[in-house]
Amino acid sequence: MPKQLLNKENIAWLASAIVIFLVCSVLMNAGIINSYYQITLYNICINIILAVSLNLVIGICGQFSLGHAGFMCIGAYSAGIVTKMMPNLGGLFLGLLVGFVISAIVALIVSIPTLRLKGDYLAIATLGFAEIIRIIVQNMKITNGAAGLSGIPRLTTWPLLIIGVVIALVVVCNFTRSAPGRACLSIREDEIASEAMGINTTRYKVIAFVIGAILASMAGALFACNFYVINPTQFTFNRSIDILVMVVFGGMGSMTSSVIAAAAIGILNMILQNFSDIRMIIYGLALVIIMIFKPSGLLGTKEFSFKKLFQKRKGNR
Amino acid sequence: MSQFLQQVINGLSLGSIYALIALGYTMVYGIIKLINFAHGDIYMLGAYVAFITTTYFGFSFFPAMIASMVVCGILGVLIERIAYKPLRHATRIAALITAIGVSYVLEYTTQYVMGSEVKTYPTLLSNVSFSLGPVTISMQQVYIFTITIVLMIALQLIIKKTKMGRAMRAVSVDEDAAKLMGINVDTTISFTFLLGSSLAGVAGILVGIYYNSIDPLMGMVPGLKAFIAAVFGGIGSVPGAMIGGLFIGIAETMVVAYGSSLYRDAIVYLILILILIIKPDGLLGKNQREKV
User: Fold this and answer.
1) Chain A residue with minimal CA distance to B232?
2) Whole-model pTM?
3) What are the transmembrane regions (chain B) (predicted)?
4) What is the pLDDT of residues B188-199, one digit of tens each?
């Protein structure tokens, strides 16, 4: 049976995306989601893209990267510089494209030597690369050094964000179910065994890493065009950890849980805004406690799927 | 030439502080294969303990140093018992994330209790300097270097000559076999954390004196650099940590002196990436074959 693009579950997914989009738009227009909540909502969307893209690297491929902020930084600066010259939607797309190309090239350069490393060495190497990216950005003329870029036109809109989230989710979920995606899963489960089965482990790790980097740069571009101002201190090691926290809280390898965790942490951040020290202590404790009692994250690798839902309902009948 | 020598002297004193922190990383990594991200924060706490004991209780340098060592050592053991022990057989990623979590708790608890502002460190050692030919050496640098060397030799003696040291080496080679030989693995690992953390405590007070200021987030970057020093020297090797620390310290001061201070951190990460690509086992590390 040929696979239909518009089967029941795909329509259900599309419908739910449209419903979320419309509900939030109506609420925003009606002023129920005021500008304060709107910032949180936009942040959540950007964080979802980041969490999902990091989850591809950590959860699906099992490669521990601590350098996601570096790629976000590349995306943010590319979009910031281009849109300052071309303050319209075309500029944003051009900026996105530039960001994709640069981050893909950088990801290739970073990943080919470092992905031969394992586990914690890889984590430190990616961390080092991300810091180098940040330091280079901090010392370049075009990026305006440590002061950062300001006056970036505000081009990120709610429809664009939703499209970004949907693209990120579709890319990652489809990749996971493709042949390279399954190769990545097997690398996560056992690298030596998958190598013995004839999988070119480095190649698939690089593919996953590059896709993750491109998606992170997309999130960075949306971030830059949302906040007017970007500077290198926004893309430190701490940002990478923030993204990591979302992936870990939700569950490594589950996109549903990344989305939920990004949303929950976004709301939690808004509530605890005035207690930033306590918030960080809570995060730290939560990381330790989750790792001790449920190392696979709160939801593990469980995914929400309409297919299962439909089957269950059929079964009940 | 005289400027070069001067930079070498400065680099040596900075490097010996890195070396002290690197020792903790290298011992812990050698024994349980965990990058103890919280180690940099233990060193930060060491600086704070010495700050509190000297400012509020009027301790002089050596009692304050002992106090830092004791507090940090106990803290290291507590962290190991509470956070790392349940995860000893979990995946490496899980252990690493726990370490990051512990590091967050230490940093922000300190920030919550002590405030986030930079604190000025009391002058504990005389900062008289004297000239030795073309270079100027301050007494602080002499103290830092001497203390580091003495501790390093003491550590080497503990590891090579005592029963506990032999147990540590045994556990780092093969935990299960060590257990079968009647070694108490838990105690040995705790002892490793005790040693490493108390050295980090000393590094904390030394860096406080050297830079004159401390803040709750000061542990992160030097912690990473010390880890890089440990990797450079060959992780698991005590002399390697010393060489790595001194090398990183000198490289960093040279970049500041002859290049741009903006790139002082970048050079360290560059060294890390180069060493990982060229010789991942480090200078003095043993080549370990992968076992299936």
Assistant:
1) A121
2) 0.86
3) 12-35, 47-78, 90-106, 142-159, 189-211, 226-250, 262-278
4) 999 999 999 999
